[in-house]
Specification:
By secondary structure, this protein is mainly α.
């Protein structure tokens, strides 16, 4: 019984729900983290995004089952390995889509529109867009951006343009790193994902350098912008940039030297230095923002 629950947890990729914490970004930087009403609204948004994401993961696993079966890691996914049948997966996916629809009726309509646009985007990605070079990584990036924008919409706050750019560059960086690992770790990469024939390690490395640099520059400019200084009442917020720089460099090390990073969450939570850096960053940011 327990093993079956674990298997369904893998099908729904519960660990990947961590990506949905991006919806909390506007709450934190709008200085509303300890506002109970706003926090509960964003928490509800996190839950809806997680349910929607799981429904999409199920669809993706059903669609890619044959190709996943020849991947050195993805072959262990529940549908590809046969631990969960296609019929069981379809029923599970349908339940989660219905659940997402039911929750949508009691939430902010603008936020709901963003979530369902995210669902539509990912269905198009699974069936078509992931076969188009460069467009594929922009689709992945847009998924992260929709989470941040949704987090701002649900509590009706504006978000800094620099913070949006930081999210864009970060999500493109992570998408490029994902493609690099796929190419570097499998002899059958093109068979598993046709679009990889249009990429090369050198091309991906150039994209990762540009987007990684974009993350650092955009975030640094956010920390020194007049709006940020006035909101947080300090010119020293710029020093949090050191954690962002370390995070980018460390993640590149994980991908380039250890060939990890196809699963962003797994790569981060299994690296002690990334964990410590993330905890220090969150602690310092909250101290700066809420101690004034």
């Amino acid at each position: 019984m327990f093993s079956k629950i674990v298997t369904y947890g893998k099908l729904l990729r519960v660990t990947s729900w961590a990506k949905n914490f991006f919806v909390f970004v506007p709450l934190v930087f709008a200085k509303q983290l300890f506002n109970k009403g706003e926090f509960l609204d964003v928490l509800s948004g996190f839950i809806l995004f997680s349910i929607a994401a799981s429904a999409i993961y199920v669809v993706n696993d059903i669609y890619d089952a044959e190709k996943d079966a020849i991947h050195p890691l993805k072959k262990n996914r529940p549908v590809a390995s046969g631990k969960i049948s296609a019929i069981e997966a379809k029923i599970t996916g349908a339940i989660f889509f219905i659940l997402a629809g039911a929750i949508s009726f009691v939430m902010n309509y603008s936020f709901v529109a963003i979530v369902w646009f995210y669902i539509l985007l990912n269905i198009l990605y699974t069936n078509y867009l992931k076969q188009i070079v460069i467009v594929d990584i922009f689709c992945i990036a847009l998924g992260f951006m929709l989470r941040v924008i949704g987090g701002a919409v649900i509590i009706s706050v504006s978000i800094s343009s620099w913070l949006i750019l930081t999210t864009l560059f970060l999500s493109l960086f992570l998408a490029a790193m994902k493609r690099r690992v796929e190419i570097a770790t499998s002899e059958h990469a093109v068979e598993q994902r046709n679009v990889l024939k249009d990429y090369s390690l050198s091309f991906i490395d150039q994209i990762s350098s540009i987007t990684g640099g974009g993350v650092i520059i955009s975030y640094a400019l956010y920390t020194v912008s007049e709006r940020t200084i006035l909101m947080f009442g300090s010119e020293y917020f710029v020093f949090t940039t050191i954690f962002v720089i370390f995070g980018i460099f460390r993640y590149m090390y994980i991908v380039f030297k250890k060939d990890k990073g196809e699963n962003v969450v797994e790569a981060m939570i299994t690296d002690s230095q990334m964990i410590v850096n993330a905890l220090l960053y969150v602690g310092v940011v909250i101290t700066f923002i809420y101690n004034r």
